[in-house]
Design goal:
Shape: globular
Structural class: alpha/beta
Helix content: 40-55%
Distance between the termini: 47 Å
Number of helices: 25
Number of strands: 9
Strand order of the largest sheet: 1-3-2-4-5
């Protein structure tokens, strides 16, 4: 790691109030500058990667709110992600330290073989899908409490409200624009998004077509490698990134559309992840978030159907802090007739999702989710809107059972209502059960 990047932090403390773990505990080791101090000490040989030290690094959500606050322009993401990769590989002269990404063999197998595949995720959930069809979902979830490891038991609270069918529904090919073609885009389905929310993917594609985009959905898509990057699994991330680049090669695309904040941040950083691959930087330069593309195509084709709701927008950290995308999702919401947009308090703080953080670090994630849900309930909005699958699952779990909880919607659902694109169910009353 370049020592100059570590020394760029001047320890001014501007990052402290925006860091979720520092906001919860108020302890320096769980702050960005505290973690940078630990990383520098390890790199300079003044400290060993002890379990206690690594614990503080694991507690980082990699939300990058500190980057937004930093007056020195420190790219904290490079420091924490490179350090996690170094630790997963065993460090320099040190035995491997069990970090969040390598806790047990079941987790390693799941993380490397199931999570990167939407098809595998849906097949894994087949028993729950069958139970749901038979009206036995709650009974099946009670049985899941006896799973052999804690992270498996915790993950059941984060499952989508409706389990998608395990077979069929695959989408691939070239979908023509409606009316004049204004852009040719490739669409990344994503592992978690397509695994848990395939209907939302289709809504986004239909919205893009309505806005004049020809949408190319290549076959054999897999994970982009974002979760692997965040957890230090650099070899896995590089393999997945190379496969993603090959999958989209040769399609003559103007833009490549990402549907999740964490995916988009990693896809746009492929040039750094794969410095030896001449195609990586070119691929990364074409990546745009769905909201960026839709907002760019919005002029001339605004939504015309009225949706009378007051909504609070929950900004995903990797969309806002990592990609600096703030205006576009809000502009899309404001363009829908009848929508009143309000802001959630503490918008800069993470909701606790952070990739797989809410599974591996449940205490911090639970507190952050409850804090965000309480803000949403007190705000009095009809709905909370997010554009990220991880935030959706975390907010769903945090709002469940909360008095006066608003509805939870995805940005694409509201846009679909605004464009009159098919049946999108919006509950008639508040309360998320």
């Amino acid at each position: 790691m370049d020592a100059a990047r570590l020394r760029a932090c001047i320890h001014c403390g501007f990052c402290l109030t925006t860091c979720p773990t520092y906001a919860l505990r108020g302890e320096e080791p769980d702050s960005p500058r505290g973690r940078i101090y630990f990383i520098r000490a390890m790199q300079e040989g003044r400290a060993d990667p002890t379990p206690r030290l690594v614990l503080h690094l694991d507690r980082c959500l990699t939300c990058f709110a500190c980057e937004t606050a930093c007056p020195s322009g420190v790219r904290y993401r490079d420091l924490i992600e490179d350090t996690r990769a170094w630790l997963v590989q065993g460090g320099v002269g040190h035995p491997a330290i069990p970090t969040a990404a390598t806790r047990d063999w079941i987790w390693r197998w799941f993380f490397r073989n199931i999570l990167p595949s939407a098809r595998s995720l849906r097949l894994m959930l087949t028993p729950l899908w069958v139970a749901e069809r038979l009206g036995l979902r709650n009974a099946a979830l009670r049985l899941a409490r006896y799973a052999p490891v804690p992270w498996m038991r915790r993950s059941t609270a984060l499952l989508p409200a409706r389990i998608p069918a395990p077979f069929g529904g695959g989408l691939a090919g070239v979908l023509p624009a409606r009316g004049e073609r204004r852009m040719r885009v490739g669409f990344i389905l994503g592992c978690v998004m397509e695994g848990f929310f395939p209907d939302l993917n289709r809504l986004m594609i239909e919205i893009l077509r309505e806005l004049g985009a020809e949408v190319v959905v290549p076959r054999a898509q897999t994970c982009c490698g974002a979760l692997a990057v965040h957890e230090g699994e650099r070899d896995l991330a590089e393999r997945l990134a190379r496969r993603m680049i090959r999958t989209f090669a040769g399609h003559a695309l103007d833009t490549i559309v990402a549907n999740a904040g964490g995916c988009g941040a990693t896809l746009k950083d492929y040039g750094r992840l794969l410095p030896d691959d001449p195609a990586a930087a070119g691929f990364a330069a074409k990546v745009r978030d769905f909201s960026e593309v839709a907002a760019a195509l919005l002029p001339g084709r605004p939504p015309t159907h009225e949706v009378k709701l007051t909504v609070a927008y929950q900004s995903a950290c990797h969309l806002g802090h990592a990609q600096k995308i703030h205006a576009e999702p809000r502009a899309l919401l404001r363009a829908i007739p009848g929508i009143t947009l309000v802001e959630l308090p503490e918008q800069e703080l993470c909701c606790g999702s952070a990739g797989v953080y809410n599974i591996l670090e449940p205490a911090f994630a639970g507190e952050l989710g409850a804090r965000k849900a309480a803000h949403a309930a007190r705000l009095g909005a009809d709905a909370v809107v997010t554009a990220n699958p991880g935030c959706y699952l975390q907010m769903q779990a945090s709002l469940r059972g909360l008095a006066h909880a608003p509805r939870l919607l995805h940005l694409s659902e509201l846009l679909a209502l605004g464009y009159g694109l098919g049946p999108v169910q919006v509950p008639a009353s508040k309360g998320y059960n």
